[in-house]
Specification:
This is G-protein coupled receptors family 1 profile domain-containing protein. Keywords: Cell membrane, Disulfide bond, G-protein coupled receptor, Glycoprotein, Leucine-rich repeat, Membrane, Receptor, Repeat, Signal, Transducer, Transmembrane, Transmembrane helix. It is a multi-pass membrane protein. One of its GO terms (biological process) is adenylate cyclase-activating G protein-coupled receptor signaling pathway. InterPro entries: GPCR_Rhodpsn (IPR000276), GPCR_Rhodpsn_7TM (IPR017452), Gphrmn_rcpt_fam (IPR002131), Leu-rich_rpt (IPR001611), Leu-rich_rpt_typical-subtyp (IPR003591), LRR_dom_sf (IPR032675). The chain has about 675 residues and is of the alpha/beta class. Among the domains are: about 270 residues, Rhodopsin 7-helix transmembrane proteins (Rhopdopsin 7-helix transmembrane proteins), CATH 1.20.1070.10; about 55 residues, no CATH class. The protein contains 18 helices and 19 strands. Strands 1-2-4-6-7-8-9-11-13-14-15-16 form a twelve-stranded parallel β-sheet, with no helix packed on it. Helix 7 packs across helix 15, helix 9 packs antiparallel against helix 10 and helix 9 runs parallel beside helix 11. It is elongated, with a radius of gyration of 38 Å.
Length: about 675
Amino acid sequence: MLTDEFQEVYSSDRDLNYNNLDEFPVSVRALRHLKELGFHSNNIRSIPEEAFVGNPALIAIHFYDNPIQIVGKSAFRHLPELRTLTLNGASLITEFPDLTGTTSLESLTLTGAQITSLPDTVCDQLPSLQILDLSYNQLKDLPRFTSCEKLQKIDLHHNEICEIQMGTFQQLVALRSLDLAWNKISVIHANAFSSVPSLNKLDLSSNLLSSFPITGLYGLTHLKLTGNNALQSSISSENFPELKVIELPYAYQCCAFGSCDSYYKIQNQWNKAENSSADEFQRKDISIFHSHDEHDFEDFLLDFDEDLKIHHSVQCSPSPGPLKPCDYLFGSWLIRVGVWTIVALTFICNVLVAVTIFRFPLFMSSVKMLIGLLALVNTLMGVSSSVLAGVDALTFGVFAHYGASWESGAGCHFTGLLSIFASEASIFLLTLAALERWFCVKHTTKFEIKPTFGSLRIAIFFCFALALITAMIPLLSGSDYGVTPLCVPLPFGKPAALGYMVALVLLNSLCFLVMTIAYTKLYCSLDKGEVDNTLDCSMVKHIALLLFTNCILYCPVAILSFSSLLNLTFISPEVIKPILLLIVPLPACLNPLLYILFNPHFKEDLASLQKQTFVWNASKHASLVSVNSDDAEKQSCDSTQALVTFTSPGLSYDIAPTNSLVPSSYRMNENCNLTSVKFVPCH
């Protein structure tokens, strides 16, 4: 209850904020000269009938952060002088209050409630309304605001509006600002804004728009369309001659506004333009504000806006850049030639390695099978790079017209999935090959039985499954393949993408660490003489060479990810682009190339392949190598083939004569010079 002393002291303005009021204080009715009343942060749940019947002089009523759920139908009647009514955070109100009699109301704020519809007579009740804020409600349909001729600002963001009809905002000649962000708007009539000539700020961000009407919007100075991912068409700058600030869903759409070479960032441009505070003019002499009247101050604001227009004709975001190009996907001929070279070598070398290895599947050793699978996986990486090269060629010079559709399309997502799968499968297979060489040499020197092909096949299946799961994660989480037209998750921007890339780098670093430990233990555990014999094994040396090469090439990717994690900005987009296009797919090209150039097995396999081709052309009906294991054993016996047997009966190597079509790399599974062997004839 309000005491008489309180009423006498405070007669014009009331501040009942933070008083833990549980009920509306009906004593305020006795304050006939009360002009402003505030109830900020109380526990008032209802506004009773005729709550302000004794306050005809009220100009402003503010209810901030009260759990109001009931508003009496006559609560705000008989307030002819009321100009401002604020019900902010009234989370339990479900119906629009009756405002009959408040014909002078100019500003109405009713936010955070559960209002689903507005009465068709809302403008008839409020003919003087200038500011309407109904954000954070559950509005689905809008009435015609035609009778609200004085409306200057409408805020309807965070509702559930699905459609803007033709007559919704017709004849609102004074409307300057319209906020429809964070709704579900998918359809806007082509003439919905045709009769709002004063509109200069329009916010339609985070909706479901696939098209945008331009009729009647020639006077716009601020436009927001971010978050409408289906809106991929270009927006011409000629349709908005007065535009100063625009925010679009894709950076490619900013190319039409001359932003190709502008990398400045727009920070709160919308809010700065909307709230023309004195902070923007602190650089000017403070005396200017005191020596000019209101009319001169408005002229100064217009001059200042003209200066902004001269220096920054249109500020468009997000800005294009090396990772969001306007003209060319690759950007430079150096990158373009490098990518095509890598693609050509990747296909030629990997196909050649795969053909020479898999032509004799029954005579293939475990390490050769891993090298062959590695070649097939590297070919997939070549496919991914070739797709990007094809997109660059097909959109040469006009990439901005297709960038949005490519970036958000299934083709980009599939390309990114293929790239990550191939990269991870390559590292996992290389790790498995290093472990296989370590186990092989370890068991051979100790005359023990090697791991079987069955266990190796299980390990290979696990590698491919893990690589596929790793590649599928961006499609199921917040890190998306369509972040850039290069179709790879980038270690900056969304926290999910950064976390994914850092986790990927840690996983791959663990694989390289396991490979390094395995080979270090391999060399350290052997005696000097054994080292000499072991180092003659070409496959052991080849896997070590692959380990070193792939680890060195992965370092730039790791540095890129950890620099983003530590917020280090020394790596620019101009550097990131060649890393993603040239360094990442380079192992897929070098792995088979190293096998072709430095591994003697390839020369033997290639010579045997050429000889096999010649004999096959000479005699089509003669089979060079029988697929049946019994036939192979019989043929080797007839050719006086020897069986090399170690002291442990589980270890054996097949040696064929030098004139056999099967190369020595297949006849001896472990091409190592070891001691303690004896030859026994074939029975």
